[in-house]
Task: inverse folding
């Protein structure tokens, strides 16, 4: 809590720093270098923004027309040999199923692991090992998770190259990120809440589940949604675990063949005809709209329910 | 309840063990078909041998492809990412920051398959061929390392920018203020005081970016090609380790065949490399946290 005096001092500090940083350099060459340097830094920043803009424009340019040409057919057709009759029905339904399965498996396990590591685990070598494992798993390339999924879910657990194996693989891939973001949300809950709860005689379990977890929920939820939105866009693990492109029926069981939007995009990009290029771009628009919706929801939830301590 | 939570905690160890186990098991089976030396130092990667000819599984062409794409990616991502980080932490006014940061997060959220499509269908025909190709676009293949490298660079910029920016912001303002008080300009302060102070964090950012670039699969599969070769020419088709893995799994190799097993060996190398870089980066981050 800053008093008026502190705030006054901070403002004076910032003003002084701002004045000093404009530089008392007097030599023209140095001042020219200053300007050039600042411009270069700005250009570097803008370059990334421009690249993104070009990307989005390219996608929209190629796909927008195709998307609205016959939206009904686009959303209800399966993949066909002819671009005009290709639609994303199987891909979109597959992605929806995968999102559900991934969330179902990764959220309870991830939050549970985070709560354990943050609140209950003793400070010993085993815990350090677990924490190191989580940190390293977060950086493993996604295709390696596909290899894991193939070996464990498809082969060992005999789930075949079906949608359950795909969902489990994506869940395992999302787990480290969910653990990390949930732990950060738990850490952000101030000590005061914990101490007050213990002071009133609550047990550790009561404190964690009735005070800390609800307080950390908005931050944890945001991180979880962002992790899931990353999982939806992943292609490599699904390729390895056996997602297909030409699926003619919607999935109806754990071992059903399935498709997904990223798989659709990947496989049809290989077809050289321009018509397919437009179909792919239209599918990309749908995928990115989905991601935008999820990320906006996450940000909205964070802003709306974020506890300010 | 404790037991349930403990089980959740142990899951991450289980997953790590699972990954290592699956990779090692089939890598060992692979080395019954091909020698370790032949794999690690072989200069020919040509799976799909038939009855008459054995497939060749040398890693070097794939390493070369990965190296070329990663080098191009870092060439783009480090200046742009670091430059962006310096601008955001030292120069940008609040309003500009609040526009640029979400934009970088948006770039980070673009799925890699979309970037691969962008590389193949826009960067190569509309930028690389006109700029670097002869009339009619010769000299620049449809699939090439440059397009893949550029798009991987785009994917990595947000990572380098955000970790570097954290490192720069962690530098105590007292250091900056002392520098300004001595009469130095913003440029001199940034270059001679702030960046050196944040150097371990910035190195961590670059290493993380490198690790991410090495592990990238979809962009290099879609835009880089499927022609393993040892080359430094960025405009020719190549194949990276990750693309080779992806190609085998989408092809017709049967489980247990040498082609299939080779992929596990490549996967082991990939896992080892990215793990090594990630550990290095973590050590650097911990070191820079301790200094203040």
Result:
């Amino acid at each position: 809590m800053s008093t008026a005096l502190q705030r006054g001092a901070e403002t004076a500090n910032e003003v002084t720093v701002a004045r000093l940083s404009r530089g008392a350099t007097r030599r023209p060459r140095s001042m020219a270098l200053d300007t050039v340097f600042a411009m270069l830094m700005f250009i570097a920043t803008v370059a990334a923004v421009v690249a993104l803009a070009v990307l989005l424009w390219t996608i929209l340019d190629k796909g927008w027309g195709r998307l609205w040409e016959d939206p009904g057919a686009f959303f209800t057709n399966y993949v066909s040999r002819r671009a005009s009759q290709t639609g994303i029905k199987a891909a979109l339904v597959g992605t929806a199923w995968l999102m559900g399965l991934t969330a179902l498996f990764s959220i309870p396990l991830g939050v549970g692991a985070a709560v354990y590591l943050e609140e209950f685990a003793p400070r010993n070598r085993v815990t350090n090992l677990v924490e190191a494992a989580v940190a390293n798993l977060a950086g493993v390339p996604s295709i390696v998770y596909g290899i894991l999924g193939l070996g464990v879910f498809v082969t060992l657990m005999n789930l075949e190259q079906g949608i359950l194996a795909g969902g489990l693989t994506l869940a395992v891939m999302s787990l480290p990120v969910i653990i990390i973001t949930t732990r950060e949300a738990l850490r952000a809950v101030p000590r005061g809440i914990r101490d007050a709860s213990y002071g009133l005689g609550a047990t550790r379990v009561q404190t964690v589940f009735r005070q800390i977890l609800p307080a950390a929920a908005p931050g944890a939820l945001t991180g979880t949604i962002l992790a899931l939105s990353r999982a939806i866009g992943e292609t490599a693990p699904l390729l390895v675990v056996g997602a297909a492109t030409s699926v003619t029926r919607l999935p109806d069981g754990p071992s059903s063949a399935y498709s997904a939007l990223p798989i659709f995009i990947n496989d049809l990009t290989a077809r050289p005809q321009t018509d397919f290029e437009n179909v792919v771009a239209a599918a990309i628009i749908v995928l990115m709209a989905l991601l935008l919706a999820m990320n906006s929801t996450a940000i909205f939830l964070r802003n709306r329910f974020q506890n300010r301590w | 309840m404790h037991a349930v939570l403990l089980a959740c905690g142990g899951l991450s160890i289980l997953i790590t063990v699972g990954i290592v186990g699956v990779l090692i098991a089939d890598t060992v089976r692979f080395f019954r078909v091909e020698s370790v030396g032949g794999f690690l130092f072989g200069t020919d990667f040509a799976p799909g041998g038939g009855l008459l000819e054995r497939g060749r599984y040398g890693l070097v062409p794939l390493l070369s492809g990965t190296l070329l794409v990663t080098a191009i990616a870092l060439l783009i991502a480090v200046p742009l990412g670091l430059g962006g980080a310096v601008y955001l932490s030292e120069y940008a006014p609040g309003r500009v920051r609040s526009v640029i940061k979400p934009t970088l997060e948006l770039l980070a959220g673009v799925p890699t398959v979309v970037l691969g499509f962008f590389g193949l269908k826009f960067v190569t025909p509309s930028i690389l061929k006109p700029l670097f190709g002869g009339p009619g676009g010769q000299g620049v293949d449809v699939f090439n390392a440059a397009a893949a490298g550029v798009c991987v660079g785009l994917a990595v910029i947000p990572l380098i920018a955000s970790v570097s920016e954290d490192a720069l912001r962690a530098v105590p303002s007292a250091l900056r203020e002392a520098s300004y008080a001595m009469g130095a300009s913003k440029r001199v302060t940034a270059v001679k005081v702030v960046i050196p102070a944040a150097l371990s964090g910035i190195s961590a950012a670059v290493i993380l970016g490198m690790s991410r670039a090495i592990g990238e699969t979809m962009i290099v599969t879609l835009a880089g090609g499927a022609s393993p070769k040892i080359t430094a020419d960025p405009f020719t088709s190549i194949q990276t380790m990750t693309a080779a893995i992806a190609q085998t799994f989408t092809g017709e190799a049967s489980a247990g065949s040498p082609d299939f097993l080779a992929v596990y060996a490549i996967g082991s190398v990939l896992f080892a490399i990215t793990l090594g870089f990630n550990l290095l980066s973590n050590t650097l981050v911990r070191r820079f946290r301790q200094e203040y």
Chain B touches chain A through 95 residues (CB under 8 Å).
